[in-house]
Design brief:
The protein contains 16 helices and 13 strands. The chain is of the alpha/beta class. Strand 10, helix 8 and strand 11 form a beta-alpha-beta unit. The longest helix has 29 residues.
Length: 398
């Protein structure tokens, strides 16, 4: 089993799937591919599940477990976040690969505005996206940045603990749900009495956790967490919708005062087929955005405000970043079209860009032909359609 897992990690797998009645499978560059030919039996899958579990009490009641989270590590192989579940009365295991090295903004090639987000003194920073879009890596990079540049107490609540942080400039306390504290709600309530400057929650799953998170931000803490929402505007609406109608107006006011920024992510296959690229939408909450959230009727204006604030605040919409990725050749036009928020506007902008760059290319070539002697070759323009590549970056899908 460990040899198969190591082979998958060496091939760049982000997840492994182990299921009774099926072969080993791994998600490599976004695609789920088989690793073996031998089908696993229910007994073999159960044995693997026991091997991955570290808590002896949990092992003793494995046959009664329906959903179980833990972490597992092996020297020379790596660290993994493990989910063990029941399906058709037998076990299935999904393992998420976690690098030993804590990521940085530079290694993830994240937008420069993220450093400014991590420097915030207080408020809620939300990293959003679908499962497998790299939210955990981005949050770990934020914690790592604060750890290297600030003297703070950082407290994390995770299920399970993923990236292992060491104290550098900051003191880091990492608590695992089920081992160090009963649940997220209890851990977050207790965190407010443990003198933290920064609190990182693995996920805000319900209205009670969100309410406590806002209280943490209201009392002067920086709170970093995740939500499974597709973009910044949807994140605000989703938070409000998690509360009863009679509480939503108060929640909206509190959210306008506590929200600091929203970073939304989507992973896309690269044009060259080698891995995936991240497209990011970044909302920095300015006084104007606070007014839009507090008003309630103006939340629909936020996306346009993000687009207009790119140069001044470092914000960007998904469509703006997708345009960069297509222009640089990082992703194909068809891939970007499938991921864009507004396909018709995106297609129109790309057509206009192509017309402009085609005209620029023709003009530059014509001028070069006129100026250069017949026996001197003219250098072709660099990049896509005469534009210099830029704005694309690598990203690991952990």
């Amino acid at each position: 089993m460990e040899r198969i897992i190591k082979a998958a990690v060496d091939r760049g797998a982000s997840d492994l799937h182990i299921k009774a009645g099926d072969v080993f499978r791994a998600r490599i560059h976004g695609k789920l591919v088989p690793l073996t030919k031998q089908v696993l039996t229910p007994e073999q899958t159960r044995t693997i599940a026991l091997h991955l579990m570290s808590n002896e009490d949990d092992k003793a009641r494995i046959d009664k477990l329906m959903d179980y989270d833990c972490s597992w590590a092996a020297v020379g192989i790596g660290r993994f976040r493990v989910n063990i579940m029941k399906q058709r009365s037998s076990f299935m295991i999904v393992m998420r690969v976690i690098p030993f090295e804590v990521p940085t903004f530079e290694t993830l090639r994240l937008p420069p505005a993220l450093a400014r987000v991590a420097e915030a003194e207080r408020g809620m920073v939300l990293v959003t996206g679908v499962t497998g879009s790299g939210k955990s890596s981005t949050m770990a990079a934020m914690v790592n940045y604060i750890n290297k540049h600030e003297n703070r107490h950082i407290l994390t609540l995770e299920n399970p603990i993923e990236f292992i942080h060491t104290d550098i400039q900051s003191a880091i306390t990492q608590r695992e749900i089920g081992t160090d504290t009963p649940d997220f709600k209890m851990g977050l309530r207790a965190a407010l009495r443990q003198d933290p400057d920064v609190v990182m929650i693995g996920e805000m799953r319900d209205a009670e956790t969100i309410d406590t998170a806002m209280k943490a931000a209201e009392t002067g803490h920086l709170l970093i967490s995740t939500l499974h929402t597709p973009d910044a505007q949807s994140t605000i609406l989703r938070i409000m919708a998690m509360f009863p109608p009679e509480e939503q107006e108060v929640v909206r006011i509190r959210l306008s005062e506590t929200l600091n920024s929203v970073v939304s992510q989507r992973l896309l296959p690269r044009a060259d087929g080698q891995g995936r690229a991240v497209a990011a939408e970044i909302l920095i909450v300015t006084p104007a955005v606070r007014d839009m959230i507090a008003d309630g009727k103006r939340i629909g204006e936020i996306r346009d405000y993000i687009a207009d604030g790119r140069d001044q605040y470092g914000m960007q919409t998904f469509d703006q970043h997708l345009t960069d990725l297509v222009q640089s050749g990082e992703v194909t036009f068809d891939t970007a079209m499938a991921a864009t928020t507004n396909p018709s506007d995106f297609e129109l902008k790309m057509r206009m860009f192509r017309r402009v760059t085609t005209a620029m290319t023709a003009s530059s070539v014509s001028a070069a032909d006129t100026a250069a002697p017949d026996n001197v070759p003219v250098a072709p323009p660099s990049g896509l359609d005469g534009m210099t590549p830029g704005g694309a970056f690598d990203f690991m899908g952990q």
